[in-house]
Amino acid sequence: MTNAITLTDITRSYGSTRIIAPTSIDVESGQFVSLLGPSGCGKSTILSMVAGLDHASTGDVTVDGRPAVVFQDHALLPWLTARGNIEFGLRSTRPDLSAQERREIADRHLAAVGLAHAAERRPARLSGGMQQRVGIARAFAVEPEILLLDEPFGALDALTRRDLQLELLSLWEADRRTVVMVTHDVDEAILLSDRILVMSPSPDATVIADISVDLPRPRAGVDPDPELRRHLLDLLHP
């Protein structure tokens, strides 16, 4: 299998402080990989490097494909409807589509995240969970080769978070795009991931463990692995 993302001995410094020590990461095409670690360890910085929004101070970043990013704050345009936000993304990334094709794609992805009834609502009339659903639908609609998720469910209540995790899994399992997700949540990482990369605290943070998650898919209703959970918590809190 080919690598969609390769980071080779990357570092990131701000002034005299080195946030990320030399770190190498390979992500295979079609894998779901989570970056798990304490706040400030550089997880989101690594994601930004892959997205092209930041750069490594030293080392190389190679990305084979077009990424799309889903942030925690969903970043919807407030003057557009739910459908309009998805169509706006399609206009810039898939300019070959007709207006009718954009509408059909937007409606299909809204239906996939349970928001067909809210297509004409603007963000102010959507709950936080619904807004995040639109953000996820928008990311999948542009058909990126790589999906980057920066704590996409961090601001949601526990029930909404679980519902969206399962919806994300359903969307991902349909076409197995390459996904890299930043999270603080051990249970979320276990539920969603093929691999979990655990990072040490900053400064000089780096990947200290690369752990495969061997739970069967699909995972809705699958019991978590308590031994794996304990191992991850021990790594995070030595």
UniProtKB/TrEMBL annotation:
Classify the source by domain of life.
Bacteria
Tell me the membrane topology, using the record's own terms: Peripheral membrane protein
Q: Short name of one Pfam family for this protein? A: ABC_tran
Subcellular localization is given as: Cell membrane
User: Per the record, GO CC terms?
Assistant: plasma membrane
Q: Which GO terms describe its molecular function?
A: ATP binding; ATP hydrolysis activity
Which of UniProt's keywords are assigned here?
ATP-binding, Cell membrane, Membrane, Nucleotide-binding, Transport
Record flagged with keyword ATP-binding: yes
Q: Does the keyword Membrane apply?
A: yes
Residues annotated as domain ABC transporter: 5-226
Name the InterPro entries for this protein.
Answer: AAA+_ATPase, ABC_transporter-like_ATP-bd, ABC_transporter-like_CS, ABC_transporter_ATP-bind, P-loop_NTPase
Which SMART domains does UniProt cross-reference here? AAA
Q: What is this protein called?
A: Nitrate/nitrite transport system ATP-binding protein
